Amino acid sequence: MLRLRPTRRMIILYLINPVALLACSQFVGLARAQSPGRSWNSSVACCQRLLSQLGSKVSYPGSSVYISETNGSDSYWSQQEASILSSCRVTPTSAEDVSVAVVALNQGNCSFAVRGGGHTPFAGAANIEDGVTIDFGSMNQVTVNQNQTITSIGAGARWGSVYSTLDAMNLAVSGGRVSDVGVAGLTLGGGLSFFAPQHGFACDGVMSHQVVLASGQIVIANEYENADLHQALKGGSNNFGVVTRFDLKTFPQGKLWGGLIVLPITAAQQQFQPLVDFNAASGAGLDPFATVINAYVYSNTTGSLITNFPVYTKPEPFPAILQNFTNMQPQLLNTLEITNLTTFTDELDGNEPKGFRQLWATLTIGNDAELLSSIFNASDSLANPLLGTVSNLQWALAFQAVPMSASAQGALNGGNVLGISPSDGNLFIVNLGIQWTEEADDARLNAAAEEFLTQATQLAEAKGLLNDFIYLNYALPTQNPLGSYGSENLQKLRDVSAKYDPGQVFQRLVPGGFKIPG
């Protein structure tokens, strides 16, 4: 009798019909025999176990749920992530479901990924080849407590749904600035916010985490219980357990004022001193309601432009602290208006469409106009030669202020592990974002991003203005954000990992994201 050697594709196609899979023990046995140890075959066995325990909450390639979560209406942001084919996906509806899944995956020695919103661009961050992906898309509840001080948010929620719920109640939390970004990833990585001068990073507003540990135990981590775990999760990412719920500090918030101002790229040198002056004023606490995102966007479809996003978290147009930006000319577009968080984060989301290949890279620098100008020039010299040769290219360099008023909030809210404080002075997070369509351009654009980091780092070092902090949510996979938090915080991460995950499940079996350096 002719016996076919099953390929991975044969197994995946067969898994489209899970009932038939369970019935065909001979085929599964043959598949297991082909590759001993942890492999795509063991992930098939884990999918079987999960199917027997969680039923319809497990989906396979070809099913409507699987397609929706990967390339459909709930797809990943980057094409690199969307193109990964996991052996199966688990869509839990409760922390108890997550506990069942984690125990099964641990016992089966199966690699797995955890997806909140799926907005991290690099492949494998929240998806996994030859493994199981836990997708929180059905755990997206947003509920406010009776006295309106805490909002409890499921790990699958995105900021747009959070803000639409809270806007109706004239409330807010310190969260993301793009509506389609997930709550979980942004918050576990720190999280930049419109409310940073008042409330710090998004992680500083987490009052409590609900966490499923590697053992399957469901615990609460806050300042009163498991406080070390609570602090480690404020910037420590996915290294300690699966966070299933975030309880965020909630505060009154009505309308705000903000929008987009577009200028020609020739106005670049007008930007840098106003940015430094703004950062200094914000750091001194002169007006804690203002933020600005300043970006330089190169595109072979729309040309090269400057985009400024000034935001004032009160319904007061043209505040003095932002007038250096609102007065700049010539303005090609101006959408400034009194609006709400839902509308404004939707506007920003419109600038980050799905379906493209994406990468981010980052560094942190001091508050210096000459350095900003030099880094812009380095970016400009790298971007322009690519415009004529890379199809559908968008190259965006952004400067985002982290004033001392923002970094002070960590200690005031129980501490985080990010490793920055007012003693670092007023800082800028520099973010390079590149968008394109063809896989053939991957190597070239990754090399360009690395070259940008090299040049920008050298420029900052030459002026004594390079800060060690690497913002995890913007980092290239070759960067080491957790190592940038400083030796004391890194040791905290190691200690918490050893205490709550003694078998190192989240270091061994969850390869995605950034792992704790040894």
UniProtKB/TrEMBL annotation:
The keyword DNA-binding does not apply. PANTHER family: BINDING OXIDOREDUCTASE, PUTATIVE (AFU_ORTHOLOGUE AFUA_1G17690)-RELATED, FAD-BINDING PCMH-TYPE DOMAIN-CONTAINING PROTEIN-RELATED. Belongs to the oxygen-dependent FAD-linked oxidoreductase family. This is FAD-binding PCMH-type domain-containing protein. Residues 82-253 form the FAD-binding PCMH-type domain. The keyword Signal applies. Keywords: FAD, Flavoprotein, Oxidoreductase, Signal. One of its GO terms (molecular function) is oxidoreductase activity. Residues 1-33 form the signal peptide. InterPro entries: FAD-bd_PCMH, FAD-bd_PCMH-like_sf, FAD-bd_PCMH_sub2, FAD-linked_Oxidoreductase, Oxid_FAD_bind_N.
